[in-house]
Structures are given as structure tokens and as C-alpha cells.
Amino acid sequence: MLRQIFVFCAAAFAAVAASDFISNHTVDPRPGNAVAMQAQDEQAAARPVALSGTERLAPDARGHHIAEFRLNNLRVSGLIDTGATTVAINESTARRAGIRLSPADFTHPVQTANGTVMGARAVIGEVRVGTVRVRDVEALVLEDRALQTVLIGMSFLNRLRSFSYENGTLVLKR
Fold first, then answer.
1. pLDDT digits (tens, 9 = 90+) for 2-45
2. Is the pTM for the entire model greater than 0.90?
3. CB proximity list for 44: less than 8 A, separation 6 or greater
4. Is the separation of the CB atoms in 61 and 22 below 8 Å?
5. Which whole-number Å values give the CA distances from 148 to 19, 26, 76, 158, in the listed order?
6. Phi first, then psi: what are they for 55, rounded to 5°?
7. Mind listing the pLDDT tens digit for each residue in 88-119?
8. Which of 10-14, 72-76, 88-92, 169-173 has the lowest mean pLDDT?
9. For the chain, first and last CA: distance in Å?
10. Which residues contact 114 (CB under 8 A, 6 or more apart)?
11. 118 close to 108: Cβ distance less than 8 angstroms
12. In this structure, are residues 148 and 117 in contact, taking their beta carbons and an 8 Å threshold?
């Protein structure tokens, strides 16, 4: 049990460290304001979508694979992080995605570049990128100050039929 907690914390630390670096070097690519984005989210949620396909994610200029994801229908920009054990999100993102946590849920200490923070385990009902959807994805929710980027880790990727790199492009298959 102690070993599992240590491995979990080490993976979370790596995810948070990567997030801190990425968030300090990333520009939000989404155009528009919050009201327009909310209207787009509502329109997209109303459309039926066949979800069982393949998505190809080209790397950005730094070689990172960043895409628009939906966490329980909340649209977010997410960074694919194969070094992260789980999906990692902050409290504000969790709350906006409908994940309800209490202060008592934050029982896992996580070492970050900014010090130790507490994390809570959660399950995201649905994580979607394009036509690829995975239900009931394990996640780690961290304090807002510890994480500014959504990290899409192995708890999502391992639930796919396959993921691979083809000529620098990340291919996700459900």
C-alpha cells in the first residue's frame, strides 16, 4: 500500500512539474470569450456524435500534443502526458466539470515544484477528444495553485484500444 502511494505521488509530482513548465510556456490557443465559448459548448452538447473513432494529434512547435478535450462536457485544452499515471486537473476545473469534492477528500500529499500540496482521487464520468470517448476515467485533483494545465495521463490512454506515434503524430484509437 505504501509503495502504491509512493508511486502515485511520484507520478503526480512528474505531472505537476511538467504542467508548471508547460503553463509557463503555453499560450491559450482558443479564440473568443467565455460567453461565446459557453454558447459553443451548449450547441456542441446538443448535437449527436458517433464516438468510437480515431483521432490524430499533431505536435505543437515544442513537440507537445495539446488538444481540445471534454471532461463531462466541459471544454478544456489538455496536454497529453504519457509520463503521468492519471489525468490531473485542478479544483476549479473539477468543479466546472461537475466533480464535487470536499476538503476531506484531499488526503494524498503530492510533491510539486512549488512545494507539497494535497490531492484528491476522483473519477471523471467522460473524457472525450474528437470522436474518441472514454467513460469513468480516474483522475487526481490538485489545489488550484499547484496546477494550471489539464494533463491527460495514462488513466485515459490505457483505456484506448491503442495509441501510437506515426511520423510524430499521436494516434488515438478507441
1. 444 434 444 444 444 444 433 433 334 334 433 434 444 444 44
2. no
3. 75
4. no
5. 7, 11, 11, 24
6. -125, 140
7. 999 999 999 999 999 999 999 988 777 899 99
8. 10-14
9. 32
10. 20, 145, 146
11. yes
12. no
C-alpha cell at 134: 472514454
Report the alpha-carbon angle 100-109-69, nearest 5: 45
Nine-digit cell string for 84? 503521468
Tell me the helix, strand and coil percentages in the chain, rounded to 5: 30, 35, 35
Please list, in sequence order, all residues whose beta carbon lies within 8 angstroms of the beta carbon of residue 123, skipping any fewer than 6 positions away: 136, 137, 138, 139
At a CB cut-off of 8 Å and minimum separation 6, what does 120 contact? 101, 105, 106, 107, 108, 140, 141
Retrieve residue 83's grid coordinates.
509520463
Write the class of the CATH domain 2-173: mainly beta
> Helix (H, G, I), strand (E, B), or coil: what is residue 5?
helix
User: CB-side exposure of 111: number of CA atoms within 13 Å?
Assistant: 8
Q: Residue 136's Cα: distance from chain center in Å?
A: 13
Residue type, 108: H
